[in-house]
Design goal:
The chain is built from five helices and 34 strands. The chain is mainly beta. The strands form three sheets. It has a 29-stranded parallel sheet that branches. The chain has a three-stranded antiparallel sheet with strand order 12-14-13. Strand 13 and strand 14 form a beta hairpin. The protein is globular and about 65 Å long.
């Protein structure tokens, strides 16, 4: 295995402390403290930076915009609860799921910052339940009936019955599915404002970022989304979403360089620890890879995938190290996904000392036929064909998986140079390999379950 020889610079802050209560914040669970928190952050920033302290209590607020040289610190027992009124979150031109688009501003947002942190022991709650659609098959009939009785709009025109928060959102879903370019049209997006769910936390083009100790939970869409950032340390955090949360990813590290993801837990509704770098033409034009990432001593409970590469990887992924992690009850353990149309190169991925328990589907999966926005069956150019190569997996143990290992490449571009060593998986399934070349298998032990 290669060594992680890249450095991640931590932010440094002045020893100044500013309490939001000194700027008018009220701990009653319903007073909107947006202005008080904004005033505290601005005052801290204008004085050279330091800590903005959120004390123990339940603090209701609208969106918060971070500043350089500011550490937003939540004391133990502090809960920051965000408004679920979409009108509080203006549309901004940003990036989501790999496309440039208009989207609601994130509850916690920052752009072009340096030296920024969220630390402490408190909870950041995105109040996402009223934003998200819900799929019928994920609910018991009793819970589904209760949800329907509370209002919304049911859409049963597709494969799955879905409850949308409103008729407007139901209409918006069809409009955007029919033409994704509408996401780039501000007038259309204003019409469907409430449909454009934000990530709970988004930083754009920021350097020297620290998230330490806090809990992020209940996001409207993705939970934590650094985009185009450099020197990111995420440690000792807890990222939680309901298991049924639509697009409820945990961490999406997107077009970022030099990152440590350490000693953290994930229990989410979609992919847990996910590496991304843009989608299709938008991603290739931007051309910024996610690279130099160490993921170590992390535990994932529920999630579609424990560690995930893709499917938005058009700018490339490289030099990513996943070590000493545990996945318990995820749909897939180590998940690599893409499709025709993406392009991009995923290379130099190193996974070692991974323990898994009760994996619903594949312990290890490479799927180049992922069906979200695929161009399968269409004519594609060479630059639209994704490439996966030089992937190393060593010391993998899994107790329980439907399928131990599945490697499914493309006829136009087989997956190649995957190295599997010292792998033990209890399963009744078999290893499945197609459209792949130079797959090295050393000491692979498939134990049939009784």
């Amino acid at each position: 295995m290669e060594k992680t020889d890249f450095k991640v610079i931590l932010p440094i802050f002045k020893d100044n402390k500013y309490f939001i209560t000194d700027f008018g914040a009220v701990n009653d669970g319903y007073t909107n403290n947006s202005k008080a928190i904004e005033d505290t952050i601005n005052h801290c920033s204008s004085n050279g930076g330091g800590k903005v302290i959120i004390p123990k209590g339940l603090w209701f607020t609208g969106p918060i915009e971070l500043k350089s040289n500011v550490d937003l610190h939540l004391e133990r027992g502090a809960v920051l609860l965000f408004s679920n009124d979409y009108k509080d979150y203006p549309l901004i031109n940003t990036n989501f799921e790999g496309y440039f688009m208009y989207r609601c501003k994130s509850p916690i947002y920052g752009k072009d910052l340096e030296n920024v942190a969220i630390t402490g022991y408190g909870v950041i709650d995105g109040n996402g339940d009223n934003w998200r659609p819900i799929k019928h098959f994920k609910m018991t009939e009793k819970v589904w009936a209760e949800l329907v009785s509370q209002g919304g709009a049911i859409d049963n025109s597709g494969k799955e019955e879905i409850l949308w928060p409103s008729e407007t959102n139901k209409e918006a879903n069809k409009a955007f599915l029919d033409n994704y370019l509408l996401y780039k049209d501000k007038e259309t997006c204003e019409k469907y404002h409430s449909f454009l769910r934000p990530a709970l936390f988004n930083l754009t083009r920021c350097k020297n970022v620290l998230l330490d100790g806090v809990t992020f939970r209940n996001s409207p869409a993705w939970c934590v989304h650094p985009w185009l950032c450099e020197n990111i340390t995420i440690q000792n955090v807890h990222i939680q979403n309901p298991w049924y949360a639509q697009n409820g990813d945990g961490l999406d590290l997107d077009c970022c360089k030099n990152a440590h993801i350490l000693n953290s837990t994930f229990d989410v509704g979609d992919d847990a620890i996910c590496m991304k770098s843009g989608k299709n033409e938008d991603g290739r034009k931007l051309g910024v890879s996610t690279e130099n990432v160490l993921i170590k001593n992390c535990t994932v409970y529920h999630g579609h995938g424990g560690f995930v590469a893709g499917s938005e990887m058009s700018g490339g992924l490289k030099n990513i190290f996943v070590e000493d992690c545990t996945f318990i009850g995820t749909d897939i353990g180590l998940r690599f996904k893409s499709c025709l149309g993406r392009g991009g190169v995923v290379e130099n991925i190193y996974c070692k000392n991974i323990n898994m328990l009760n994996i619903k589907n594949e312990a290890i999966a490479f799927n180049m036929g992922y069906d979200m926005d695929t161009k399968a069956g269409q004519e594609v150019s060479p630059e639209e064909i994704p490439k996966f190569k030089n992937i190393f997996m060593e010391n993998i143990v899994c107790n329980g998986a439907k399928t131990p290992i599945s490697i499914s490449g493309l006829k136009a571009m087989p997956i190649h140079h995957v190295y599997l060593k010292n792998i033990s998986i209890q399963t009744n399934g078999n290893i499945e390999i197609e459209n792949a070349e130079n797959i090295s298998q050393e000491n692979i032990n498939i134990i049939k379950e009784i």
